[in-house]
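Structure representation:
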Amino acid sequence: MGKGEAVRIRIPAPISGGLILSYRCSASCRHCMYACSPGWSADWISEDDLAATLQTLSGRIQPAPGGEQTMSLNHGLHFTGGEPFLNFELLCRAVRMATDLRIPSLFVETNCYWARSDRETREKLLELKACGLAGILISINPFYLEYIPFQRSERAIRVAREVFGPNVVVYQAEYLRLFRQMRIRDRLPIHEFLKLREGREFARNAEFFLNGRAPYAMEEFDLFARFPAGRLFSVPCTPAFLRSWHNHFDNYGNFMPGYCGGLSLGDCRQLDSLLAEAIDLDARPVLSYIIADNFEGLLAFAVQRGYRERPSGYLSKCHLCADIRKFLVRVYDFPELEPREFYDQLEAG
């Protein structure tokens, strides 16, 4: 921020969000906002940190419009990763603890790699429901299709609807219809998908954010326009950077704004004090530029420390932001650039 401006800022109290149990995943999807992969350290959230995080969220998380036992993407609390089913016992403990704390509208987000049989799928979902889980979000799109046989996704949807009734969200449902029309049963590499008519239409109409790993992993396909940094300074952050809904809290204690992987507003285990005291922006200069939407200043700040603008340009404002941060995390220990492994995993896959 410029001279004379406030150096502390209060952040909105979270009313919904996702708890990342670990960044370890069964896949390295090209679009992953949080750069998850099998290569991440298996740092599952500890029992103490899980308890502390859920305790501080208790009383703040708001239920879905349909009530505490219904689900909505931007209400309640969801358990995510990474892939939370990689540590099913921990997932069950997390649901039980959140239920005991009366946190409403609990659901889990999954890629369904584990849905190998009807029996196994039903047993896991029934156990989670008994723990207090209200519903499930099942992720489907061409990026997951590289790793997850489509028949497992279909099985998980079918059985989940038997267990949770209407509390099953397929994100994105248009790909469920498309893959069924294409009669896909197994995996399909993204290279092969993009050769098809359906793949070319996807390239024009896909709904996903060009942030996290996506700008790096999708560069090779040359599907998106590239821009010099200066063209992106006035582009607004979408959704808003600081907001009360759909924030994320990770296994290292980071309170992450919205979909912005690798950025920490502070310690979510000490949320009361974080909200009361506000953020010291003098101690978090990278964060101060982003909150002020001053990306011209952020770029200049990085250039002074050795960063060079990418000659090939950037696919989005998020790409510019992530690329600058990926450089800065290696030149100084900025407390807001956490977890550091996020930056190592951006180009992994």
